[in-house]
Amino acid sequence: xxxxxxxxxxxxxxxxxxxxxxxxxxxxxxxxxxxxxxxxxxxxxxxxxxxxxxxxxxxxxxxxxxxxxxxxxxxxxxxxxxxxxxxxxxxxxxxxxxxxxxxxxxxxxxxxxxxxxxxxxxxxxxxxxxxxxxxxxxxxxxxxxxxxxxxxxxxxxxxxxxxxxxxxxxxxxxxxxxxxxxxxxxxxxxxxxxxxxxxxxxxxxxxxxxxxxxxxxxxxxxxxxxxxxxxxxxxxxxxxxxxxxxxxxxxxxxxxxxxxxxxxxxxxxxxxxxxxxxxxxxxxxxxxxxxxxxxxxxxxxxxxxxxxxxxxxxxxxxxxxxxxxxxxxxxxxxxxxxxxxxxxxxxxxxxxxxxxxxxxxxxxxxxxxxxxxxxxxxxxxxxxxxxxxxxxxxxxxxxxxxxxxxxxxxxxxxxxxxxxxxxxxxxxxxxxxxxxxxxxxxxxxxxxxxxxxxxxxxxxxxxxxxxxxxxxxxxxxxxxxxxxxxxxxxxxxxxxxxxxxxxxxxxxxxxxxxxxxxxxxxxxxxxxxxxxxxxxxxxxxxxxxxxxxxxxxxxxxxxxxxxxxxxxxxxxxxxxxxxxxxxxxxxxxxxxxxxxxxxxxxxxxxxxxxxxxxxxxxxxxxxxxxxxxxxxxxxxxxxxxxxxxxxxxxxxxxxxxxxxxxxxxxxxxxxxxxxxxxxxxxxxxxxxxxxxxxxxxxxxxxxxxxxxxxxxxxxxxxxxx
Length: 721
Prior knowledge:
The protein has 1 helix and 53 strands. It has 721 residues and is mostly beta strands. Strands 21, 22, 23, 24, 25, 26, 27, 28 and 29 form a 9-stranded antiparallel beta sheet that branches. Strands 4, 7, 8, 11, 12 and 13 form a 6-stranded antiparallel beta sheet that branches.
């Protein structure tokens, strides 16, 4: 038996004892501790046995994270603190910090199981008067009302829902309201509830089974509030009250899980987002909201708890505001100051998309999405200084240069040609460049252009009628030799590690002895950390159309790896594209690859894209790729570029099965291509003479490329019978 102060303990237990152990500072005589449970409350008592001046104590609760609470003084140097509402049989981790004049000391960490009496009188009494009934039921939850009486002062309840087990505790004789959450609407549930005390005695009437059916999710029965802003001060995205911008895509494919529909509520069109994670909207034309000061949105939801709206600018990307408060089962109307977005760096002069982001899997209804000007002054001033002229014209597109001045800071241009009407928005007194695409070559178009402000005031000189003709298709494309054409082009590198501009450069051709005698060539270095599809593109090629006269594209390459080389062409927005992939057959020397774009005749394109080294995987292997003399030829098929070398003979020709090749110098390699430039057969040789088996090669015309050990290349036509 050890005795200190007013407390004596025969031995240390989880519930009581003495110690001199410290985690900070030191103890001489030590301290006593005792922990007791009453119902669901746990009281911690500590008494310092070292005499100190100015003593205070703090309970350190390390059970989950860290909390420090000042303890109440009891007698002498004793202190107490009670943690309420604890769950039976859970483990608490605590320590006591004693602070005093000149220092502090902290006890060791103690663990205590809630409800443990540490060997007192054995409790064999079971909980009685156990009841479990159903309370409030919603679409996603069921409330359980639980009660039982136990001599220990506390009762533990175990709730089973299918494979899920939940636990909660309550004081004896006190009804406990417990809500089972995360349920599915309109679903039957069977909940099994059992009552027990801290030592495991179970109620005689265990378990009580409760059946409950969750309700269906509510739906709005009334339409969103009717907007009251004057139409002259509104730019509408979605609203029955106003004329919204046309051509808007409310469900673009952004790989979202959201299902989008338009429903009628009291005859009013309303957007419905089901299973919302995020949802984009592509506006039919850009919005210039510089003359507006608010964004209005009406939202109704039965279950969403977090919703953010992102206006997306062409120049400054996206910024968001979270809509608060978000009350369930009622319309929430938000008037968001545009300064909430512009203060984050968003430009509202070129809004072209919207995005809504939820908490995942919920339902949201949206209506009356519009920008508005809150000024009470009616705008009656029409735009002035309206001009419209033609800019760049090609075979498929015409650029219009538009300008006007308005007191609101923004102007709208309505463009009509034939049966087509398009709208674009510009900034006051700033020239707006707008390109009409998809036009027919060598055709005259008449553009009728009207300018208005947001209030609908129209300029006095509207409409301006502008006749403009597209050019004829361009089918004559000069060879890109990096000497007279291509040497000053701008290239954009992508997916190539750091994408440094130095990775692409026009250089002196260091190997002019073979088929490429050009002075200059183009080099592209693929980094070891680049993607397999690392490449580069240029729009300096200008607009052209594939025709029979130019669809056979030849490209000289000199690579240090044997990998596919992909050549691609596309239009401005990549909606029209064509690409072909061929591998080089030799390394560290020039060869010419032919790409047959006959299947793409008629396509009008504006960019060239090169993937010089396109393996199936990069695997940390980079490459150096030289390119030159990209030429556009007729679709009369030819093979690789020819060069004559004396002393090489090929026979018989035509050939049926075996072809013989002789040379005055050792032959290093023989490659046979068909007229599409595709490799049919490759043979490595180190002899003056070789025989090649062609018995399995289909009849037709072929080109045979013969390379000797001196690097000389001879290409000869061969007929296979």
